[in-house]
Amino acid sequence: VLRAFVDHFVSTGRLDPVHLQALKNGTLQVQLVFQPVNQEESKPMPTNIPSEDSLKSTLPIIKLEEKICSPLKNLRSGDGCIARWSEDNVWYNAVIEEIAADGYAHVHFSDYGNSDKLKSAFLVKSPEDLPPDAEVDPHVQTVDPHVQTASSKSKAGKIESSENLCPSEVCLGKPPMDLLSLATPKQDLVITDLKGPVGLGLMLDQSLVVVCRGDGTVRRFSREGQFLGLVISHREFVRPVDVLVLRCGDFVVRDELGIQMFGEQGKFIKNLGENFINMCYGLTEDEMGRVITINCNVGSGGAGDLTDLGQTDIFYIDTSSGAVVKRVEMIDIVGEAKDKSACRFLTYHNEKLYVVDMGLDCVYVLFLKDGEEQAEVFGSTGNKAGQFRDPAGLVVDNTGTMMVVDSKNHRLQLFNSKYAFCGIVKVDQPLARPSGLFLDYQRGDLFVSNYSDQSVVCYKI
User: Fold this and answer.
1) What is the Cα–Cα distance from 410 to 408, expressed in whole angstroms?
2) pTM to 2 decimals?
3) What value does the CA radius of gyration of the chain take, rounded to a whole number of Å?
4) Is 102 exposed, middle or buried, given 0-12, 13-18 or 19+ CB atoms closer than 10 A?
């Protein structure tokens, strides 16, 4: 097509209407090839060549793009594709989540659970469309001898340096649990048709407690996924989110009106901290059996007066009296970014408190040193290795390794005790806005609530 366009222009000095329309429609693919001219075969140029100014007024602007570009005309939101991840330039199986107005596509890597925003040049529909010498993840089915499989960068059963990870796979083992030696979790159980599942807890009788924010219920299931019934409160739950099973066997549920405590059989016992709480988030338990929560005073909610207006504190609540017995102010930790901060999840392990900030996409680690409260922080906003988009649930093993839910990136990330990124947990079924996380160390079961998929999945480790 291009040669016909050039020949016609050289011989007549005019643009053929068909070629001009093709240019206007953007259907003419342009690839410039420069070759030496044979002087003997060259012909005199016509004298009626349009001036440069007239050409500018009639010719559309032609943008030259990379040869590997694959315009999204054959791909739509929801389509499967093969996408090149921006961190390591390896091609992975992906699903297009959204095509933005600027031509970029938001993709979800289906084998690894993380996301990226990519140009159309880095999306292809099938392995046959991959560019020569492309480095491709082993999960992509291809028989092209020119395509290199990236098996050396993501080996099962091994954690490599963060330079070679992503979307890397972390292969999950048996108790004593070490999150850095886990073998690939295999889906063992799925509980579906849940309305906005978030919080998870495992009772001493091995029944599973699931908090559903969408319909304001707290549900119990058997270990095999059979529905056992609803937890009935002395009042209706109002958008409940968190549940915590205490070491004594009782459990507590947190909703927008406060914290309620229940016995092993689900019978209401008492409210906790009702005279102190404004609006609280997250639940965990320390070595003294105190319930820890995040309290925010936004000028509405409960009548508590311990937390200053516009501030956030950590409350330690005695379960016997229901009173707040310790308070830690977060203002000195969050600093000037407090207006964007949104601390929503927390967990306690080995004398350290881990607080997840969904607003600032980071995790604070609080601990005592020389009798004074100290804090460290890791994480930032993004979809690269070690970054978060709405981090949520978190679990910690005995070595201090953390598994953190990276909700909007649809993945679970691992960090060691020095807060260095170690890898992404590869699961055999994709995650969809994961939120709650519970790890049964004794039986090697990993429970994850998928908020968007309206389900809870148990992975066998």
Assistant:
1) 5
2) 0.65
3) 29
4) exposed
